[in-house]
């Protein structure tokens, strides 16, 4: 397994970054919060998990080993694949997720698109005894940053890549743009749309 990558960040997209390792550019899919911590042209290290399928090899990246372990743990539950696991970490910070699992907080868990009440109950049942108590209760999502004008089509495409269907993704992005998101950059717009999609469940 490729447990980590270190190298220059060549490109940062809405759902992935390209990191050069030994002259090879590796596409690493990650949450908006992880991607926000990267800088193009700067060296970086990401903890990673390689997901092998019959027709693909997909590398997922995380800010630290803790996130990677939660990513793997989530996938031990029936019905949770890598895309939903990544979406879970995009919506819920690790400490928030652990607290929700320990407390059986189904409302918080069902904020993740793709996880309904039954799925949340299954997560709590199977993972409650496998996670440690968080040291604190941080905010649900990282603070968004203001930047360039939003790029609607890119954000919708990124949401679809995370497992959302096109229509709800478009509606969420348009709702954010119609509110306070008109002047946010694409990454902030993606985070805000993820929050709206989670709350609409």
From TrEMBL:
Identify the stretch(es) annotated as Domain III: 151-201
Q: Which organism is it from?
A: Pseudonocardia xinjiangensis
Q: Which UniProt keywords apply?
A: Cytoplasm, DNA damage, DNA recombination, DNA repair, DNA-binding
| Compartment(s) where it occurs, according to its Swiss-Prot or TrEMBL record | Cytoplasm
The record's function comment reads: The RuvA-RuvB-RuvC complex processes Holliday junction (HJ) DNA during genetic recombination and DNA repair, while the RuvA-RuvB complex plays an important role in the rescue of blocked DNA replication forks via replication fork reversal (RFR). RuvA specifically binds to HJ cruciform DNA, conferring on it an open structure. The RuvB hexamer acts as an ATP-dependent pump, pulling dsDNA into and through the RuvAB complex. HJ branch migration allows RuvC to scan DNA until it finds its consensus sequence, where it cleaves and resolves the cruciform DNA.
Task: Cite the HAMAP family for this sequence.
Answer: DNA_HJ_migration_RuvA
Q: Which InterPro entries match?
A: DNA_helicase_Holl-junc_RuvA_I, Hlx-hairpin-Hlx_DNA-bd_motif, NA-bd_OB-fold, RuvA, RuvA_2-like, RuvA_C, RuvA_C_sf
Q: Which domain of life is it from?
A: Bacteria
Q: How does it assemble?
A: Homotetramer. Forms an RuvA(8)-RuvB(12)-Holliday junction (HJ) complex. HJ DNA is sandwiched between 2 RuvA tetramers; dsDNA enters through RuvA and exits via RuvB. An RuvB hexamer assembles on each DNA strand where it exits the tetramer. Each RuvB hexamer is contacted by two RuvA subunits (via domain III) on 2 adjacent RuvB subunits; this complex drives branch migration. In the full resolvosome a probable DNA-RuvA(4)-RuvB(12)-RuvC(2) complex forms which resolves the HJ.
Domain Helix-hairpin-helix DNA-binding motif class, chain residue ranges per copy: 72-91, 107-126
Family assignment? Belongs to the RuvA family.
Name of the protein in its database record: Holliday junction branch migration complex subunit RuvA
Matching entries from Pfam families are given as:
HHH_5, RuvA_C, RuvA_N
UniProt keyword annotation of DNA-binding present: yes
């Amino acid at each position: 397994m490729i447990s980590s990558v270190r190298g220059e960040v060549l490109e940062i997209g809405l759902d992935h970054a390209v990191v050069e390792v030994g002259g090879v550019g590796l596409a690493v899919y990650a949450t908006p919060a992880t991607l926000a911590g990267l800088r193009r042209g700067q060296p970086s290290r990401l903890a990673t998990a390689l997901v092998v399928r019959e027709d693909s090899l997909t590398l997922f990246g995380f800010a630290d080993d803790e996130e990677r372990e939660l990513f793997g743990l989530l996938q031990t539950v029936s019905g949770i694949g890598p895309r939903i696991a990544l979406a879970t970490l995009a919506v819920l910070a690790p400490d928030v997720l652990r607290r929700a699992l320990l407390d059986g907080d189904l409302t918080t868990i069902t904020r993740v698109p793709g996880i309904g009440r039954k799925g949340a109950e299954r997560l709590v049942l199977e993972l409650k005894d496998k996670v440690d108590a968080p040291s604190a209760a941080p905010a649900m999502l990282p603070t968004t940053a203001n930047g360039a004008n939003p790029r609607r089509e890119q954000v919708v495409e990124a949401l679809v890549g995370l497992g959302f269907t096109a229509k709800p993704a478009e509606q969420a992005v348009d709702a954010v743009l119609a509110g306070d998101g008109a002047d946010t950059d694409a990454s902030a717009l993606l985070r805000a749309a993820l929050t709206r999609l989670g709350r609409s469940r």
